[in-house]
Write a structure and sequence with these properties.
Belongs to the OMP decarboxylase family. Type 2 subfamily. Keywords: Decarboxylase, Lyase, Pyrimidine biosynthesis. InterPro entries: Aldolase_TIM, OMPdecase_type-2, OMPdeCOase_dom, RibuloseP-bd_barrel. 43% of the residues lie in helices and 17% in strands. By secondary structure, it is an alpha/beta fold. It has one domain: Alpha-Beta Barrel (TIM Barrel), CATH 3.20.20.70. The strands form 2 sheets. The chain has an 8-stranded parallel barrel, surrounded by 5 helices. The chain has a two-stranded antiparallel sheet with strand order 6-7. Helix 2 packs parallel to helix 4, helix 5 packs parallel to helix 6 and helix 10 packs parallel to helix 12. The longest helix is centred in the C-terminal third of the chain and has 23 residues. The relative contact order is 0.15. The structure holds the ligand O=c1ccn([C@@H]2O[C@H](COP(=O)(O)O)[C@@H](O)[C@H]2O)c(=O)[nH]1. Ligand LLZGTKA7 binds next to strand 10 and helix 11. The site of the ligand O=c1ccn([C@@H]2O[C@H](COP(=O)(O)O)[C@@H](O)[C@H]2O)c(=O)[nH]1 has 19 residues, from strand 10 and helix 11.
Length: 274
């Protein structure tokens, strides 16, 4: 999906909601456990309940890898089920020396070589340009670099001062010399909304993937106020608050209600910046 198409989806749906598919077998409603593939059955119901409200889906790969080969099968079926007008994110946080990154890129971007067909992947920037560019070799695919993450440990390295800048700012500035905002996004935690003004100065056009509303307590209002651009410019992720709104047979209906509430707030913020 291109920058323009993503921006159009946001305008059409009046939403910048990304539903995180952090599907944990231990948290699935009991009635699904007799399904041949409970993880896929759950994801399919969540996607059916939210596809008109979400512009993106983000399976966190750890939840699938932890299930072994069955997990990869559930992931492939889930990815195939996501509607074409939704942006897909492999939240895999990869990155290694160039030849290894090339294989990670193939695994997530290249169905012709037995890989998956995600639009984008999250990448840790720590190993530098040659660990990231192999992902950019795939025309039309996106890299989402970890910049300022939502967790308390983000202070350990990302907030370290490098003279005039902090490390996360250097990540954004340097990565923006590798490719344009049509290929690179940054992860900025919703719990870091206070830094969004500075981040927007360095990355005025890049989309930001913002996890941390809902279960981690980040504020959608603050993120929207400082992060929205006229192109949209945000993908705000919620995983547990949507997926596990109910553990019963009404889980999909309750998930939808959570997504509706986020989408309605997003529509208000989008209207305010027009
Ligand atoms: O800084 C980051 C980067 C990634 N994540 C991931 O996003 C979701 C958040 O899930 P919630 O249940 O909505 O808290 C999860 O997959 C994380 O691994 C993040 O939270 N923060």
């Amino acid at each position: 999906m291109t920058y323009q198409e993503l921006s159009e989806q946001i305008a059409q749906k009046q939403s910048y909601l990304c539903v995180g598919l952090d599907t944990d077998l231990k948290k699935l409603p009991h009635h699904l456990l007799t399904e041949p593939d409970p993880v896929f059955a759950f994801n399919r119901a969540i996607i059916d309940a939210t596809a008109d409200l979400a512009v993106a889906y983000k399976p966190n790969i750890a939840f699938y890898e932890a299930q072994g080969p069955r997990g990869w099968e559930s992931l492939q079926k889930t990815l195939d089920y996501i509607p074409a007008n939704c942006f897909t994110i492999a939240d895999a946080k990869r990155g290694d020396i160039g030849n290894t990154s090339g294989l990670y890129a193939r695994a997530f971007f290249d169905p012709a070589a037995a890989g998956l067909h995600f639009d984008s992947i999250t990448v840790a920037p720590y190993m530098g340009h040659d660990s990231v560019t192999p992902f950019l070799d795939y025309e039309g695919k996106w890299v989402i670099l970890l910049a300022l993450t939502s967790n308390p440990g983000s202070a350990d390295f990302q907030r370290q001062s490098l003279g005039e800048q902090e490390l996360f700012e250097a990540v954004i500035e340097t990565a923006n010399s590798w490719a344009g905002p049509d290929r690179i996004m940054f992860v900025v935690g919703a719990t870091q909304a206070a830094e969004l003004g500075r981040i927007r100065q360095l990355a005025p056009k890049n989309f930001l993937l913002v996890p941390g509303v809902g279960a981690q307590g980040g504020s959608l209002e603050d993120v929207s106020r400082y992060g929205l651009t006229t192109d949209g410019g945000l993908l705000v992720n919620a995983s547990r608050s949507i997926l596990y709104a109910s553990g019963g047979t009404d889980f999909a209906r309750r998930a939808r209600a959570e997504a509706v509430s986020l989408q309605q707030e997003m529509a208000r913020h989008l209207q305010a910046i027009r």
